[in-house]
Amino acid sequence: MAADKPRLARLTAMLTQLQAGKIVTAKEIANKHRVSIRTIYRDIRTLEKSGIPILTVEGKGFSIMEGYKIPPVLFTQEEANALITAEQLVRNNKDYSLTTQFESAITKIKAVLKYSQKDKTEFLSSRLQVRDNHKKNITSNYLIQLQSTITNYQLLRIKYLSLDNILSHREIEPFALYTTQGHWILIAYCQLRNDFRAFRLDCIQQMEILQVNFQPHKITLEEYLEQCRKKYLTTPDIPMSKA
Question: Residue ranges per domain, the chain?
Fold first, then answer.
């Protein structure tokens, strides 16, 4: 029986992994659990026999049938503590849309915690303090909206004041987001410059989401950053002021 426990834990974790992703490859699952791909295929068959509707997407991986719901996952105390720590970190973020949406999400997560965990997480919360943004400065309110425009390929019209104090109006195709030195950066294809540019969210004066979709760019974020590294011999942080 003891030998079955690691596998039972793995099967439970696999269900969570499958539920979290649209399509998950056998290699991704195997790497996460440090087992062979052959073992993962055997585990998938076990889950299927137990009644879990797992779909095999030929040449891509596995997914759970749309509409099938797995009961809420129970968190370990360590996972609950990690969430509370993340809550403290996000509260100090300078984008208001992120802090408000995360507060809403963390409230729902706390609702499924055990009573004993709730006591401990409340105690831990009182003993944690993140001071990177001790003045509670809010410098933008666009992050969550921008995440949606990236996934929906929606064109944006922005009024942008660069770090050189140059005001411009742009129509841009949002591509990716990253954070550095306490600031959120939007990478987007600028139709004015006909090239990718980096825009600091706190420099965006106004933003309008247009009811126009653009074609996805055939480049990954990693490829973009590598191009920037070769061009500037650093991260794209330096040229962003000249967007």
Answer: 4-64, 77-126, 143-242
Alpha carbon distances (Å) from 86 to 48, 94, 95, 121, 146: 35, 15, 15, 12, 21
Cα(25)–Cα(57) distance, integer angstroms: 9
What number is the average pLDDT over the span 73-83? Answer: 82
Tell me, what amino acid is at 230? K
d(C-alpha 90, C-alpha 106), whole Å? 11
Q: What are the Cα distances from residue 183, in Å, to 92, 139, 160, 164, 188?
A: 12, 9, 15, 17, 16
Q: What is the pLDDT of residues 113-165, one digit of tens each?
A: 877 888 888 888 887 777 776 667 888 999 999 999 999 999 999 999 999 99
What is the average pLDDT score of the chain?
A: 85
Nearest residue to 125 via CA among 113, 137, 135, 143: 113
What are the tokens at 10? 């793995």
Say if domain 4-64 classifies as CATH 3.40.50.300. Answer: no
Q: Considering the domain 143-242 in this protein, what is its CATH number?
A: 2.30.30
> The tokens of 176 are what?
């990716």
